[in-house]
Each structure stands twice: as C-alpha cells, then as structure tokens.
Amino acid sequence: QDRLVESGGALVRPGGSLNLTCAGIGVTLQNQTVAWFRQVPDKEREWIAEISRNVEGEADYRDSVMGRFTISRDNAKNTVSLQMNDLKPEDTAIYYCNLFPPRHDYWGQGTQVTVSS
User: Fold this and answer.
1) Pairing state between β 69-74 and 59-61
2) Which of 24, 37, 46, 67 is the residue whose CA sits 20 to 30 A from 91?
3) Alpha carbon distance 51, 47 (integer Å)
4) 3-state secondary structure the chain
C-alpha cells in the first residue's frame, strides 16, 4: 500500500535539535508538494512547513517555527526532512508528513517529539 512513514522523533531537552524524516513508500515525493504537520491531544492538527514541488523547492513555515525549523528533500532517497533546532516545550506533539493538499489515505502514525527538561 502506498504510504508515508515518519521517523526521528525523540525526547529532547529545550534548546535541543532533532531531524525528522518522511519516507515515501510507493509514493514518489520528488514532484509533490510535501508538508509537515503536528498535533497535540485535544487540538486540531496544524500545518507547520511545506516544500514546493517545483525545481526551486520553495519552503514556507508557520510563524512559530520560522527560523528554527528547516524543511528539505532528498530526491535520491525519496525523503523529505524537517530539521528542528532550538526546540521548545510547546513543540511537543506528534509530527506527521503528507502531501499538500493532504491526502486522507496518506496520514500515517506520525512520530512523537517531546521537549522537556
């Protein structure tokens, strides 16, 4: 079954860094706009970053992560990564990747990021 698989989540202290990876399984990400989302309990899933499908790979970010998070793609590996620096407790969430606009059948299990001292 075609799907996206997230990995790289962990427990990290405030100010720390993590790199999340979104891998396409049966899905070629190279010509797709791909986005990262996150969700905390009792709140809606929120968009946080996306990288465009065009050659320039333009990126866009939610204000709260601008300057701390960087989205990038590796076409050879068929992955899209999210480098997260200067993590804050409010970044704690389950992180998901999907195409943008998202496809319902591509929501995966996500990867848990916990920022705590």
Assistant:
1) unpaired
2) 24
3) 12
4) CCEEEEECCCEECCCCCEEEEEEEECCCCCCCCEEEEEECCCCCCEEEEEECCCCCCCEEECHHHCCCEEEEEECCCCEEEEEECCCCHHHCEEEEEEECCCCHHHCCCCEEEEECC
Structure tokens at 91: 């970044």
Q: How much of the chain exceeds pLDDT 90, in percent?
A: 94
Residue among 19, 6, 22 at smallest CA distance from 87: 19
For residues 83 and 65, is the Cβ–Cβ distance under 8 A?
A: no
Say if residue 55's pLDDT is above 80: no
Strand order of the β-sheet with 79-84 is 3-7, 18-25, 79-84, 69-74
Token digits of residue 1: 């079954």
Provide the residue type at 104 as one letter: H
